[in-house]
Records
---
Amino acid sequence: MPMEPWPRIGWRNLGRNRRRTVITAAGLAFGYFAIVLMNGLMGGMTAEMIENGTGFLMGQIQIHAADYLPQRSIYETIGGRDGADVKALIQTATADAAIEAAAPRVYAGGLVSSGASTSAAMLVGVDPDLEPGVSRIFRGVVKGRPPTSGANEILIGAEMARQLGVDVGDELVLVAPAADGSLGNDLYVVSGIFRSGIAELDGQFAMLPIGRLQALAALEPDRVHEIAAATADPWLASEAAQRLAGPISKLSDQAVVQPWTELRPEMMDYAQLAKSWSFVVIVIVFAIAIFGVANTMLLGTFERRREFAVIMAIGAAPGAVLRTVLYEGVALGAISLVFGVLITLPVLLWWHNAPPDLGWLYGDFTMFGALIRPVLRVEYDVASALWAGLALLLTALLAALVPAARAARLLPADTLSAD
Amino acid sequence: MTTAIGRAGFGLCLVLGGLNGLVASGKIEAQETPREIIDRVDRILRGESSHGLATMEVVTEHWQRSLTMEMWSLGTEYSLVRITAPRKEAGTATLKSGDDIWNYLPRVDRTIKIPASLMMGSWMGSHFTNDDLVKESRLVEDYEIEIGFEGVREGDDEVWEFVLTPKPEAAVVWSRIEFQVRKDDLMPTWARYYDDDGELVRILEYSDYREMGGRLVPAVMVMVPQDKPDERTSVRYSQLDFDIDIDEDFFSLRALQSGSD
Amino acid sequence: MNRARLMLRLALRNLRRQARRSLLTAAAMVIGGGLLIFSVSLGDGTHEDWIESGVRTGSGHIAIQAPGYLLSHKIEDRLSTETVAAARAALRSPGIAESVLEVVPKLTTGGLASSPTGARPVEVAGVNPVDEARFSTLDERAIEGRYLEPDDRLAAYVGAELAEGLELRLGSRMVLTAQDAEGEISGQLVRVVGIFQTGIPEVDQRIVHIPLRTAGEWLGAEGAVTTVAVLVDRSRVVRRTVRRLEAALAEPIADGRLAVLTWQEAMPELDAVVKVDDLGNYMFQGIMFGIIALAIVNTILMSVLYRHREFGVLQALGFTPGQTGALVMAEGVVLTVLSGLLGIGLGLLVTWFFWRDGLDISFTWQEDWTFSGVVLDPVIVPLFRTARVIQGLLFILFIGTLASFYPAYRATRIDVAEAMKFER
């Protein structure tokens, strides 16, 4: 089947004024670049927020007894009074492909006293070996080191240390109402001080080896309140939690598996708001770009008005001319897209791997109780890259409409007799 | 009554009192105001000072346990309780001095002052709060007292039922406490605590009246929270002595820590 | 001078001659300028709103506190009666008083609220009911009962979540327990006169307002306060006012008796959120104008190439290449500035006309949404600022100049002989 000549004519027309084509394509390509990069940045910020919010302490997935939240009663351990096979729970969790690590935790409210002063605290029992896989709390240690398994050592927040007037190496008394009704109390040595930038954590949280807190709170070793798990990508958490629900309930029928999206819905809201904004950005950027493209193409069709008139004079239908110009627009869009992808990719790769640190400008800050490093990090956002590509082609096509219609409406006789 | 309820409230210096044989029902004269009657009950039950041994049993949804303890009191300002069993907690002591509460923890050999944020916390896992202990000495100042009922209630005993309503500015949470006292021997039978909506929140019941330290006292007190009727804290006295030789130094922090008694 | 005027006239004529092309380029610029003003004024409006509700829920645009209070939040770090008087005097002094709208003393302490149902940790603020009602928006959030009134003594205004947790209703007894100025534990009875709901969990769970006098008596700190919150007429005068206050209060500051904090220092989270949002806006505007700049380069360059012959003639008639370049430059700058002005004017007009009372974006969220402890108002009222309009103009001028450089450069490189030879 002989090919229609119109696409080829459209394509060739682009080559006739290369400079113009390049400049127009550059505009569209830059628009594409800007959108992908900006959405990547927004995605980076959202990811940063989610990763910090979930990764600092909470983990992306948590397993609890059904009634544990929100009261956090010391009795509501996984599996109730009989406890659960903690090892099996952790193994089941980590067996899931999306889950990188899991760690058990025990919580107890209590008093921390340095003798001179006393403050109320949330005591968190963590497994010093497994915890670093799940949360970054130990990376927040600014002085000393995390507690060692089996030792009466405690890691406290910087503000708590200040209020109690203690430093690394000092002794603290912990008093906590235990699960058997007794008043658990013991001496601990401050092994380290952490700073998270989150007032609540720094002022009220203290971490100690899980076994030591279980002993203090009179909980057997197989009684834990929480299994926290980390996923490689926070967005995998929801599905992983669903997958885990079955196997986990076989181990402990009252246990529930919740992803961060359920535990911290406001973070989810923010992420969604940011996503919906990325579409607004696409629309606005290309709406402006449309004028540039339309302008160039108008100019191009105007320049070639005699040519179109000749084609029509020798028998081409106006529709054919219209298609030629539209093809030209689409071809321009395609070139721009290739160009855009070519300039976007390396920048994206570089930026993703070496994000510039804006700490000098902002300092660390917190949002939704999550510490955010002011690092302009870029995430790969495939969906937005595809959408932006589609929007680019659409823009080129839309921008070609007016010039195409104009070209198709030319009156050959008048045009040819003009000069 | 203050003592009765208050100590009842705390459950430790607890009804250290009983009735002195001298105080027969006939001695209460008709023209006495409710406050005077209660004051009298109070003085009799408390004595100048006291010393006793008791066992506290706590039953909750999650566990039950039993503690034995030795206790001392001086006036309304001072009291000291030292746990003697089980071994795990033996030596743990609570000192009340005025409005402050201190806990001595033998395991770590430290004394900790209970901060404001834990005043409503449970004392030794029981249904009494640290605050109950502090408020005990304040009941007389904090409440207006009226007789709500006088006559025969279930059984043959003639009783007074006092209604305590907090004074306008008293810093207490209860909006009403009812307190029943037997007329013939001035023995308390129960106290009921109500919230703002007039709903019963907890009941303290006295029983097993017997002579200890030369006075008739209720040897058993049981506290039942109404929202968890299966839970309770009961205190049983095995020995009580009154007006013993003891002074303020006994209730010092140093004495608390040294455990020298 | 004359030459410049000539250039301008030539440039204008050229633009007029290519009306359609000029219009298309101008359209991109007009839309860009309009969007710039729209987004900037809405962005500023949003931030002013955040700051406003933030400082009104918190410690004001300017907080005068004892130096340690920011970290400790304890009553030990309080301002004595004399220090408060000194601060008040400084706030009344000329140069400061003009921008000060409200001066609100508060005595805030952490403590415990208890009812027969239980006990919860709270933050109790002793406030002056009349001042506080003007200062804070909390009084407007009552869902039951009323805010505190001047004659109240044992009254408390509590959050809905606290009321639910403690089973409180209007008239309920509530006992507040906290460490007083002497370090002793002290209790205070109050009765609930009003219940509020802000939608911010931390506020609805934790905040209790009681009369300042009651708080002072209860905590044994009569006349003392922990914070003097100052509201100024707009957030921009904060730094200036703080500088003047620090000069006026140099002596107590040197003694370590007080510190003057801006809202940025007292509420770093809010500051960070505003800055980050601003950064996002700047980036967006930068990208938008980057594209506009390319469109302008494109149009002007096209017109340069298209008018090869014309420029050839001009140069043949004695125009130097520099003058030719200047002409192209002038065209570009005139086009961008005119259309930019039009865009800004249009943006101002449209924004003012349609949304001066606020743009309701509540349809994008499901429900009340809070952000770093500030309830976001779904109605954004744009804030117009001359400085922003001037910034926008300069920005557009910059973009126009930048975009004209390359075409102007091309124009200087025209070979006269070649240009004249070229026949269409």
---
Amino acid sequence: MTHMDLLEFARGPALWFSLLVFVAGSAWRIIAIFRLGTKPDLSEPRSTQRFAGAMRGIFARMIQRKEFRRSGKLGALNGYLYHLGLAAIVFGYLPHVLFVERLTGVAWPPLPEWLVYLAVGPAVIGLLVVLLERLTDPVLRLLSGFDDWFSWFIVFLPLITGMAAVGGWSAHSAPGGAPLYPVPLAIHLLSVELLFLWLPFGKLAHAFLVFISRGITGAALTRKGAAL
Amino acid sequence: MALRQCAMGTPVATPTAFETRARAVVASAAAPDPRRAAQEFVARVNRDAAFQLDACVRCGQCADACHFYLVTRDPRYTPVYKLRPMLRAYQRERAPFAKVKKWLGLAPPEATAAELAEWSELIYDSCNLCGRCTLACPMGIDIAELVRRAREGMSVAGFAPPDLYKAAEHALDSGSPIGVLWPALRRQIEIQEKETGLEIPVDVEGADYLVILSSIEIIAFPETIGALARIFRQAKVSWTIPSVGFEATNVGVQLGSRDVAAALLSRVVEAAERLKVKYVISPECGHAYSALRWEGPNLLGRPLPFKVVQIVELLDQLVHEGRLRTRGGDARRLAFHDPCQLVRRGGITEAPRRLMDGVSENTVEMPSSGAANFCCGGGGGVSAIHRAEKLRFAAFECKKEQVESAGAEALVTACANCRNVLEEAIEHYDMTLPVIGLTELMALYLESAPLDPDPAAALR
């Protein structure tokens, strides 16, 4: 297999297979849980604004209540740091936008390249702090299992391979359209595909489960007239 | 026939069926069965619970919301860790991909009897079901509700604390978890009638409001009955106390047994139906409110044939309507201790404060008051678990810090269990701080009532 063959594999069958698993796995996880069902609540609601409550629940938990801001965990603040950093890189980097456009035809204006490079710092440092805290904090150590360690690795890996691949994407191509450095790019793509393969099955599924979970609690507490 | 059809066509159990199953739950204490616990854990994970169990990212932020963790720094008291046996059962049997994981040999093992015995302390002794962790969870997971569901698995399989099984047995036998029978309540009513000079209506058919009471109120704070009589006389409220089915405490909710809870609740419902009342007043008791108002219809499988009103809500309504008028005010720095099930879990946050402002010249707020208030440490049945006493007193340190920070000279609350637990802890820490029931405070400053020259003395 030549270097270009590897890249073609990463861009072709590996990508489509990982996307298939990602979509089917995520759909199955949500549908399987929905099918568990729930009984209707027969108590008289204090408020019937359940949908509004669910929405409020989703947005309210994006900002920690002031009573809990003195928490001993770095996670609360650090969470913003690496989530925002990752979002800037994943959705703001021009090659990523072009990649999505090639797949779906949907595109959006990218962030300036300098801003994306700036976002790498918080993302990498934030994720390293996450790991350090999980290794040293007694609560996090007790709670952590394979899913936590592997999920961390699976998120960190594309960051590292992505940094190695910078400059190897098709805009910086050799004559004939082939990337100058196909191997780092192929490895980066494969690491992202590994993320797609794992996401539906582990804790990374919180990317979509968080909205459902917050919505459920938001609706339930609103029903009782309780604070969110 | 143990089943009958409810109005919606769903078969619901009769009180007799609840009693039979409730007795079986109590009997399970004699032969703990981890397999039965696992089955019940799985059965209790419905759609909403499953989404929430799956959404956890194990960030540990719930630990910093829990007073048991904050005072001990024992990571085992992290709220979400308390769910581990239920989570494992769910992941093994019911979660998406569970069958694949089982086939691959990756499914988590079932919890053993020894593990469940250890978790009994975590799920009961060190959890008040107060819901502070729920409020802190960035994933929006209702951890308190999940612990309540975990208790259902523990209680049906014999892994709940022996004290709670005993309390449940007492309640099923006598109606009260501590054996308070009608003659004891009748005696307290007679005393209050003498003290107030008012007749306290008993078993009056067709009254608007049915007053039920918790055993703690009857035994430790019977003045509440007299206070209600004075308040209702001024507000011209038609009310009655039942001689059967007067117990508001529902140990089934604390134990985590739906059958015990439903059996006990049925007695209140029967009393309300027998006396044809329109409303049942949930007394100053947090979990009694939760059991009757929010869980009641779901436990019985049918809507309640009356409206449930919490006493604080009713007093607030009477003041708003101008039927309840007060004069004067307590000059001490009074702080309201928010009972978790009324405030954080029940949404009754502003009403007690409005009432206090009407009879207090100097109301102060504790830090994190309202929805994020610290529990007294005895909620969720913890005050009934003897082995948990030391931990409960330790947890009170969070509350103590709040009280001292506010410079409160007296605490007011609307839960007899909170009041009792607070008084015990205050004594334990050699503090001097009276704890007052809100209903009693209101009654003391009624417009028609003679003003006591020394309210502090009148309120202990």
---
Amino acid sequence: MASNVSVPEQRRRSPWLASFYWLVIFITFVPIIVMVLYSFNNAPTSRITFAWNGFTTYWYRNLTQVDGLSHAFVTSLEVALISAVVSVIVGTPLSMALGRYRFWGKGLISSMVFADIAAPAIVVGAASLSFFLSINLDTGLLTILIAHIAFNVAYVVVVVRARLSGMDSSIEDAARDLGAGPFTTFTRVTLPLLWPALLAAGLLAFAMSIDDYVITSFVAGSTVTFPLFVYGAAKVGLPPQVLCFGTIIFFVGLLLALANGVLNRRHLAARAATEDDATKIVVETKQPAAV
Amino acid sequence: MSDTTTLAKPRNRRPSWVRRHSPPYWLSLVGGGWMLAFFLIPLVSGLIVSLETGNPLTGYHLTWNWSIYKQLFVHSDIPYTTFFLRSLYYGAATTILSILISYPMAYYIAFKVRDRWKSPLLFLVLLSFFVSFVIRTDMWSFILSNQGIVITALRKLHLVGKNFHILGTSNAVIGGDVYNNLAFMVLPIYVALERIDGRILEAARDLYANGRQVFLKVVLPLSRAGIFAGVLLVFITTVGDPVVSSLLGGVGTYTIGQAIQDSYLTNQQFNVAAALSTALMVVLGIIMFIYAKVFGTQNIENLV
């Protein structure tokens, strides 16, 4: 890290910047605090209200009471899990091609990956629905999966490719020189080195999928996912159980992220990071974005 | 090599031209094919759907009806042009506010704290992403509602009148958009700042630049790529978003994203929805292209 050279002069205290940072962070925490708090509110009705009527775990004990909510949640978990696994399986070879070879069409595929991430969700959703209608494919679970995999592949490629570019390709060359075929090189050398990136890519894909509202709203047909349910319920007032689900997702995600962070830190400490720092940050940047 | 057979037939020692050059193609076959079939082709076919005519009952047929664009944006009963301009305004306001808020935060993390605090501080920026997008947006509508904490408190302090409200206003929508997109601006700017070589800043100071000059003439230009990546993500997301304007807004904040969603899912005017989204994509493409040309930036793809 080259920027550390002038440490003593640069790290001057800056109370204004610090207070600004913490103020903004505090504001972003407000909705989270309210969500957790009101999931324990002993509200008289089954819609959230502002009056605080005392602490209760009633809503947690009756999580499945709301029609369709748990079903929507399970659907979302299924979609997220399947689309994450498939997009990692489909996206990893693509990242290998982009990260390890020069070939005709590479620029085109890179631009497509970039466009997939940058394109506004509303356009992608509307276009996907037009497409499914024109090929007479009934919208439902299958079309949700197809559309989710289509955007998740792009995220997988970004994460895995960043890892590949930080990885020393001479290790693979060495394996080949020692007589390993392409398949052996991949399964015995590349894959073990790539494993953390695949996990990170899968988690990111899972997170993007479970939280997607806009694209799903177009291609879902009569299938209801968790974000679709919440959006529909938000129009009339959320049932407190939605906040319970939100709170549970929040803490599970937080635990996973912290565990991942601790593991990574050990991993890095163990094998004193050789990668380019900026690349690493981009990968880290992309990992927890959006649950 | 001790194997005499390979020595006898030297042309087998090197794999054929096809074998040497085909791996990237079959590696990208499934992934590239998937994105081509379910992302790129639908995107382009959206243009074709917009040129169809018909109605939800009898179905739609391709008639190359280019005049739909004129119908929608020039003389239309529904003011789509207004929705469009309003969305662009929300996008621009959100992007500018995000830069103004994110830059000091990213600067603080990159330059003012010890290395071991950087990751935790970045993590705090991301924390709200662990709450589902729709829930966290609706929590704001809960907090800012007329019976909510904020307005109740302001009324008790007699800072605002009885009719004061936040929800349903453009400011509520812009605020919600800034909140939802903050991390997408902080992170790329941070990455760009982190890449700056500290020695360059030292050199600038040695050459008698004051703090302000160092920032304006060295740090800011060097973080341009980060700002560009952030602008790209935030502006595009905000302009097309139907959720924030619908949950935090009201009648006067109807956006193009909502218009696309409603014309498709509620009114089943497929051609209208396709035309609106094609127009949106083209307009966003042009704006981002001009922005990239004016502010000149290379390797965006490395940052996103």
---
Amino acid sequence: MKTVVEVKNLTKKFPASAKATAGKGYFLAVDNVSFSIKKGQIIGLLGPNGAGKTTTIAMLLGLIKPTSGSIEIFGKNIETHRSEILQNLNFASTYTEFRKRMTVYENLYVFSLLYDVKNPKERIDKTLETFEVGYLRNRLVMGLSSGEITRLGLCKALINYPNLLLLDEPTASLDPNIAQKTRDFLFKIRRKHTVSMLYTSHNMAEIAQMCDWVIFLNKGKIVVQDTPLNLTKMVSDCTLNLIFDAQLDDVINFAKKHQLNFLIPQPHNLIIKLTEEKIAQVLTSLARSKIKIVEIDIKKPNLEDVFLKITRNNSKQQ
Amino acid sequence: MKFHRIKAITVQNLFHMRHSFEDFVNAFWWPVLDLLIWGLMTRYFYQLKGISGNIIAFLMSGMILWHIVWRAQEDISVTFLRNVWSKNLLNLFVSPLTIWEFLAGTLLLGAIKIVFTLLAVTAVAFFAYSFNLFILGWSLIPFFASLLISGWIAGLFITGFIVRYGLRIQAFSWSLIGLIHPFSCVLYPFDSLPLWMQKIAWFLPTTHVFEGMRGVLAGAGFSIEHILWAFGLNILYLVLSGLFFSFMFEKARETGRLVKLEE
């Protein structure tokens, strides 16, 4: 597959006054980060606040100058071919807005001129319909809700038929229905037009659903990167939540006999932390015992558990 | 530079004007109000013995022409700030738009707006006080061009500071231009300045325009020397202000200020 983005040893040090610098004279926001995005691939960029996600995206967009390292997009360097690259790229973020005293159409018309879009009127109406905001066409931006502005941002991001989309929490202020429709649409343009995407979100389920590959950043460094499925395997613990109808002593004896890591938060509730392979074994043993199980809930690890594990490990190391 | 991107910025400003009363106030209200106040004052001067008609023409012309500098500077700074206030600046600069195209689009419409401001103020001066700015004749064209460039230079310097230091110094957009007003000899001749001020004033292109303007009004003719000084200094300062703005923009990219400007 063709490489669309190639980031090599990207580092950004901000001057001393910008943030707490731990006596170094500079703040290391991004530390020797390398990754690539292939054509049609969706990459998730995850990390706690201050991990370096926004700085990385800003460097990809040419808004922040890297201290060292290189960024090549569509085979060209962003520092030397900025306008050429940005012509085929777009960006949407919950944190950017639009000219408030201009209508939705007027704002999008300005962007259609900036990107030299052919038949701008037609294109604007189509993107507005895609995100179900055609009714906002002639409304001033100052009267829109945050969800409507987010959808306007997505319309803007698609106006130039981009080959690469950088999306910074694109569904953060959308209701679940519109958020799902947005994800479906992004999948559709990836499939139909092989659009590549770099996606950040605090919604782990969304990242797991959307991304082919996830990069975890913490304190400016890539801590781990893999497919969402492989990442969840990093956390081996599953949670078996059982509601039982039996004597408490029998349940405790059973748990001790099988050397389980357990907790009884309420009189008829047993919570067991165990590896995925042991679930069947424990359930079989329970069925053979005289303990009557009323309800079983198995919680497998997800990206959120991976996120928490990584960020906690990093905090402990410091 | 691509024309469609310059056009985009001009169109953005036009769309803004359509919905903004503030633009009307800035372009017409203040200049006309200023003119009315100064007009009344000059009428009072006229009634005083020993005040010549020339002084009234000096004051009125100076007042009207100073608006060119003021408006041109404010157009650059405020257009930039409006995009910052609306949190739209990043949307613009993640597009292929370059900073020079942004400035060119702003200047293009700004120059047209100033022509309309000038015409409106000149008309008010003529009907309210029987003062005709066109007595300056063809010399009005180089004076206008030179003052417009001076305003752009001031705008580039001020916006450069805002890009680098953020909204905490946004008040410069309205106030900093006032700093060169006393040195520019807008309402009084160069010779009336204290010596230390004259040393600074000579190196301002605006001083040469206003001195030249007074020469024409006093019947001494169009001073080639003053206009050459004005354009020479303007070219020098335009290059310097462009380099300064470019340096500040790069500095803002280095420090991350460009991304944080909207916060």
